[in-house]
Structures are given as structure tokens and as C-alpha cells.
Sequence to fold (326 residues):
Amino acid sequence: MSQTIHVAVTGAAGAIGYAILPRIASGQMFGPDTKVALHLLELPQAMSALDGVVMELNDCAFPLLESIHTADNPDVAFEGVNWAILIGSKPRTKGMERSDLIRDNGPIFVGQGKALLKAASDVRAVVVGNPCNTNALIAMRNAQDIRGDRFSAMTRLDQNRTMAQLATKAGVGVSAVTNVTIWGNHSTTQYPDAKNAKINGQPVFDVIADHEWLRGEMISKVQKRGAEIIAARGSSSAFSASNAAIDHVRSLIEKTPEGHWFSAAIPSDGSYGIEEGLLYSYPLTSDGQGSWSIVHDLPLDDFAKEKIMKSMAELQEEREFVKDLL
Ligand code: NAX
Fold:
């Protein structure tokens, strides 16, 4: 065991932060042979809560946890980090328009993009804080010297939600479900693609006879799952989001099994007619060496094409709201 990975987590005293930190520190993100040094960023008013989180992390006596650094300044927190999990941002409150949320949270990612550029020469950034696709675009554009393919935004929770829906409907375990793609934005315009997904290696549409459900309720259930959880729990998804962030990073660093893929939002290269440069969720494979590629030539019918274009249009609109931040 030689390597130590330096991982920044922003919003570290928040709900997702609280759920993800013990999992990173226990080796679930980078594996059982990799030590981790945590760099935790919070707002000044949350530093005292963060102190409590640090005490708990220490009290776990995780063998892989080499050190913990805390800061309320991104330039300090990001010093020398290899991965930055950008969670910290304001959640949407009741009655708030999406455009207001974008305007509120966008500036956070201007500062953090610039800080990454200054403080970290070998970094990969994963944006979880919403609206995560556009926040990732802002961070990437403010860190122009860091290669674009080092930025991604998380749609893995949507992928996992789709897998769970399909498994339940088919009456199989969730591990039987593979090749689920989330296309587009982490929002209600995303397209969870069951048409190209498989259950026990068979096309989902051959296994699940209720095609009306697959094209209707299944899609809207996934699109609105976040709101359904808020309504039931009174607060937004936390441990499922942290679990998805672990899955996201693991999928990026591990070689993807032959014939499989996973979903994450990355800068579009124009594939599938999506405007180049938008942070758009695609089916991806990883070579296990730090590079990932878009899976090409998946068949898309008119229903799918209409949906993936609608999500692109929403991302273009979001980009318009923040054009002064890019
Ligand atoms: P919380 O409000 O519990 O925690 C957010 C934390 O971020 C707070 O402790 C706050 O002090 C901190 N923070 C705010 N601005 C910061 C800044 N500039 N620098 C550092 N820290 C900052 O929210 P939580 O439930 O943890 O959610 C965090 C974000 O994840 C929200 O934007 C939420 O919408 C988003 N989500 C994204 C998901 C996804 O699938 N991509 C799913 C879950 C979640 O909705």
C-alpha cells in the first residue's frame, strides 16, 4: 500500500457530505489498497459543524485515512488534490425557480474552478451540487488550463434509480440490470433509456411486456424521484446521492467490463448531435487508466431523439442564464 489520494469534498458538513465521508475514508471510493487524505471545504459559518464531523471521522479509526485538512477557502482546500467532489451548494427551496437556483449557485463554481486551477495540477472534478451539469460547465470554463475531460457531473443517482425501477418491475435482483443510459441533464428533462438497457443480457423491452410503462411511468418516476423523496422525507436524497458519487468515481477509475457502460455527464464532443462543450450525460466506458469514452452508435428511435434534444435545449438555456460566469 503506497499510494495516497488527496480528495477534496466541498459541503463536507452537509447531508451528502456526512454520508459520503466515512465511505471515502474507509476505502469504498478508491479501494482497499489506497490511502486517502481528506481536504474538506465548508462555509465559515459551518466550520464548527465540520469540526464535529472531523471528530467522528477520527473516532472511526479508519486504517486508510491518512490525514484530514479543513478550510473555508477553496484555494487552501484544493492544494494538491487529485480528486475534487464538489457537493457544496444551496439546495432549491420551495417556490424557487430553476433559473434563480442557477444564478445563486453558479458563482460558487467560478471561484472553485479558479481555485482548482491554482491549487491542483493533477485533478479530476466531479460536480454533485445542483444544477450539476451547468455548475460543472462553469467550473470547467473557469479552469481553462485543466483538460475538459477531467470534469464530470453526476447522473449516476438517476442511473441507479432507473436500474431499481426496472429490476422491481421485472421481479429480478438489481444486479441483473445493465447498460442503463441517462441522457442529458440531471433534471426532469433527462431521458432514462430503457430501450438500450438489458436484464440478464436480454433487451429490457423483451423482458418487460408493459411497454407503455417503460415509455411513460418509468421515465417520469425517475425524472421526479428527487421530488418524491423530498415529499416523503422532508429533505433531499442524501445517502443514495453519496452512494451514487462513490459509484460514479469507481466507474471512472475501473476498467468497464466488456459490453457494459455507465452514465455520467461529460463535455460533449458533438456525439449524437449534442452541441459540443455542453456537460451532457452519455453512456461511457472507462479504460481503467484514467480515460473514458462515449459509447457510439446506440440506436435511438424518434421518441428517444426528441427527448435527448429537449434535454440539450434545457442545458443551452441554463448556459444562457450564466453566460457572464463562463
Ligand atoms: P446540505 O444543505 O445538507 O449541505 C450543503 C452544504 O454545502 C452545507 O453544509 C453548506 O454549508 C455547504 N456549502 C454551501 N456553499 C458552499 C461553498 N461555496 N463552499 C463550500 N461549502 C458550501 O445539502 P445536501 O443535501 O448535502 O446537497 C448538496 C447538493 O447536492 C445540493 O445542491 C443538492 O441539490 C445536490 N444534489 C445533487 C444530486 C445529484 O444527483 N447530482 C442528488 C442529491 C442532491 O439533490
Remarks:
- Residues 10-11, 13-17, 41-43, 46, 87-89, 91, 108, 128-130, 132, 154, 157, 186, 226, 236-238, 241 surround NAX (CB under 6 Å).
- The longest helix spans residues 98-119.
